[in-house]
Structure formats: C-alpha cells, structure tokens
Amino acid sequence: MDEGLAELLYRVVMLMGEAARRRSGPDQRLTPSQLRLLGTLEEIQPATQHQLAEALTLSDPAVSRALRPLEAEGYVTISVDPAHKRRRLVALTATGQATFLAEGKPLEEEFRTALLAAGFPYERYLADTHRLAELLTPAEPRRGAAARQSNGTPETE
After folding, report:
1. Structural domains for the chain
2. Which mean pLDDT values do the consecutive 10-residue runs of the chain (157 residues) have?
C-alpha cells in the first residue's frame, strides 16, 4: 500500500509517542503529552490558554483539561489576564520549568542523538518539517477586513 505524506507523518508521530512512553521509567512524573505541553509553554509563556491550545493544535477544552492536574501538582499557574478578565494566562512555575528541563529536554536530546547515530539527517528533516508546518498553517484572516466585507463596506487599508 502506498502511504501518502499525511499517513506517514501520523505514523511517525505515533511511533515517537510510543518510544517516549517506553523510555519513561518509574522516576518519570509526567506523561510525554504533559511534557510537550510544558515544553510548548516554556517557549511561549506567559500565554493565554487559547494561545497554548493553538500552539499545541488542540482544542481549548482539551487544554483546559490537560492543565488541571499540572496546576494541581504545581507545574503551572493559571491566572486571570488583567487586560481582559475573561482570558486566563498560563505560565510555568519554577517546579514546572525544572521538571521540563530534567525530563523533557533529555528525552528530546536522546531522540536527536539516536537519530543522528543511525545516520538520519536530523537537522535537514527538522528544517523541512518546520517549512511544511508553515506552509500548512492557514493565514490569520484580518478581522477588520472580514467585518467590512461582510457588511458591504469596501476594504481600505
């Protein structure tokens, strides 16, 4: 069967997840998914819950559910955004940062090292994957333009 790109990428992601779960030992406090969330948050924090959901390509409710145990265990803080009372800001705590650096970063580096040792062109693949993600990410519509077009007013910017 000839697998298309989407099917192959999905398969690779699933295999990477399985490898991460197998690597997890009894000392591992967090799941690979939780480590991914902390790692993403480390890159974009502080972030609104919605920004975090977009970065993880998850729904807002899924991120809300994922954050509950992380907040309860002291890995993240969730606070009301002073600029917009309905938004929630998420940030890593010192414990969350330390845990990600102790558990998540080594997993990332182990994976990279293993692929390079096997002769896999890791850096090229990483660059190509970033480019593919950029190409597939839809452009954000300009809200003002969309509103003007929907009410019949010509766009002038």
Report:
1. 29-136 (1.10.10.10)
2. 75 77 68 88 92 92 95 95 90 93 80 85 87 80 44 43
Of all residues in the chain, what percent are helix, strand and coil, respectively (each to 5)? 65, 10, 25
* Alpha-carbon gap, residue 31 to 125, rounded angstroms: 25
Stated as kind and residue range, the H or E segment containing 80 is strand 76-81
The DSSP bridge pattern shows strands 76-81 and 84-92 to be: antiparallel
Q: Tokens for 126?
A: 């990483």
Contact 40, 54 (CB under 8 A): no
Show the tokens assigned to 134.
């950029």
What pTM was computed for the model? 0.68
